[in-house]
Amino acid sequence: MHRCSFGGRLTAVFTALAFSMALLGPAPARAAGKLKIMTATTDLAALAEEVGGEKIEAESIARGYQDPHFVDAKPSFLLKLKRADLLIVVGLELEIGWLPPLITQSTNPKIQVGAPGYFDASRFAKILEIPTGQVTRAEGDVHPLGNPHYWLDPENGLRIAKGIADKLTETRPEDAAYFAQRYADFERRLKQADERWLTEMKPYAGRKIVTYHRSWPNFAEHFHLNVVGYVEPRPGIPPSPQHTVELMHLMKRENVKVIVVEPYFDLKTPNAVARETGAQVLVLPPSVGGEKEITDYFKLFDYDISKLKQAFDAAH
Amino acid sequence: MKKALMVSAILFLCSALRAQESTTAQASGGISSAVLVQETRMRTLEQQVRTLAEEVAVLRGELKAVRDAKSAEPASDPRILLTAAHVEPGMLPANPSSVPASAPPDPASAAPQVTQTQIYGGATSNAKLLNPDISLIGDFIGTAGRNDLSPSRSLELHESEVGMQAIIDPYARADAFISFGETGVNVEEAYVTFTSLPAGLLMKVGKMRADFGKVNTIHNHALPYIDRPLATNNLVGGEDGIDDAGISITRFLPAPKNWFAEGTAQVFRGDSSTVYAANRRQDLSVVGHLRAYRDLSESTNLDLGVSYSRGHSNLGFDFGPNFLTNLYGGDATLRWKPLRRAIYKNFLFRTELFWSARDQLSPLNIFQTQHAFGMYSSAEYRVNRRWTVGGRFDRSGHATDGTQTDTGFSGILTYWPSEFSQIRGQYRFGHLAIGIPGDFSNANEFLFQFLFVMGAHGAHPF
Hints:
By secondary structure, chain A is an alpha/beta fold. In chain A, 45% of the residues lie in helices and 12% in strands. Chain A has 10 helices and 9 strands. The longest helix of chain A is centred in the middle third of the chain and has 26 residues, at 176-201. Chain B is globular. By secondary structure, chain B is an alpha+beta fold. In chain B, a hairpin with a 2-residue loop joins strand 15 and strand 16. Chain B folds into 2 domains: 2-110; 134-455, Porin (Beta Barrel), CATH 2.40.160.10. Chain B has helices spanning 2-28, 32-70, 78-84, 99-102, 230-235; strands at 115-118, 133-146, 155-169, 172-181, 185-194, 201-209, 243-253, 259-268, 285-295, 300-312, 324-336, 346-361, 367-382, 387-398, 401-418, 421-433, 440-455. The chains are: A alpha/beta, B alpha+beta.
């Protein structure tokens, strides 16, 4: 009898423990609150905001003026990731150097790879430069799954937005109509803007440019630019004197007048090449937030296209 | 049986090809442009035949392996297979009848490095499938100069570390690092991490480097120097450090605004190189670590930690359960990395302090607790994308005799041809205690190191 009551007390203690553990566990999602979205890059945050509107809160880990290949896995991001309902990543191994430990350490089951709150935007986009045949690092820091800078094509922006809209609807079915309306609006505005951009870029179709890194294939394809060379000899490999000389020859031969440089690269080599070839160095942000005034996905293209036009016009 | 199948497949394909050729030949008539189309078509066909031939070669290899396993029957003439065995319908989605007849081939697709376009492409790579991410890091070290107390070999492949990392299931991931050294193989770490536990807990189970300070958690190849600090060697188990089989639990802790705090509690079997030894099942060792982190600005941050560890002294012999070693540690790291120029310029300063209280037998076989203190401070500065300069100051007592103190400093220069290789030189001076009070030996050494990374692109430690 005495033994039995002792066992009962023990059970009670365990139950209490289990309850307190459960209380400590993830708080039930407040349906009324905003969905908390973390994204790897600012562009994905901008797209999420277009579709999610005031029903969400989106924040990017990388800044728009930061090289998205090299981001520090700072613990301060962990607190934000822990509270996130959704994590949107670029994928294609762009974030392989910093995101996996953040996801693991976030202790947030919702955003683990494969969980419903993990959203790989590359699954919805048109991907270029997927290497075939043998892939080796003799090619530099190649991305075996294709070029991860795919958001620089408005059509991809629309595809990703559609994917995000579907994901948001899945997460918050009660707001389905809101997200559908936001997406329809975004689609209409983006198509309008794209027509304008295409018209603006039409006179420059086929223009040859050189870029620092391979960040621009989707942009170049959409706006009919011709990227003929790179300041980097191979992706992720800093410029070498020999390659720089070759690049100068190439640019003179092909009459290339514009060198596009992402804001996080050193301008020394591009400036030297520009001096030698009479070309112009153009710092062009590939991401939202790359400059102060680029506050959304539309302004990114507005900014880049106006800068490109100026540069092309100045070349003649 | 297999052979018969193969032959029939070949025959079928041959006839299919020939039939197709004859129909297109009739269709093309005598129009010159059609000749051109024919020409390009032929080239595509050739291209396809070539790729198919390669596949056949692979298949043949497999077939041969199967046959070899069965009997010592000689292989048939490979040439027959080479020309025709390629097109098992259904095996190849793009069989010749569908591709060239429709669209003229894109000239770009004939280039050796083909760039494909993928629409709505799943981010899968068929090369990986379900294999873990595998990498190998080679660590070659050379030493020149004079060190009478702890001489290392002139040239050695210090270790080759194989890393395998994968997501196990929706609730866990696993990481294994197996180090092949000059003297043998060692599982440096192999643990599973449960990421979806309740109450915000992160649990690791397996063999792992203990969360004692900073340098103890870092693999050799990720250190900003070639060797480990003297304090680590003297007090915290040297190169392998506190590295043992056990269970680790980590949780974020409530912290003031803008601070990040984390606590870790670990239990190990109690065997860690020269520090701990477990002679009984209950001789477990424990490690506790508290970490506080704060972003001072977008580019600057401060990382602080305190650590405690306790286990049974490794005396080389079992004198009973009363000999304990208590270790206390403190660490501070200041990082500066401007985001716009992160790959060109950054700076890191780190210092760690260690206190050791070790129960042991004195030379007169009397129970004593030996107290020793050790520390190091190191700084590194990235001058540009390829060069980093650094320095380190060391001072540490001996765990077995706190009155014996080693002092040293190092200058380090690192060159990075790319992200995946690293060449490093280090000048090291040591003023080392030799065991007799007041008597020291000076060591002047030059170390150099080549590191190379194969395979999966591991995450950079922070």
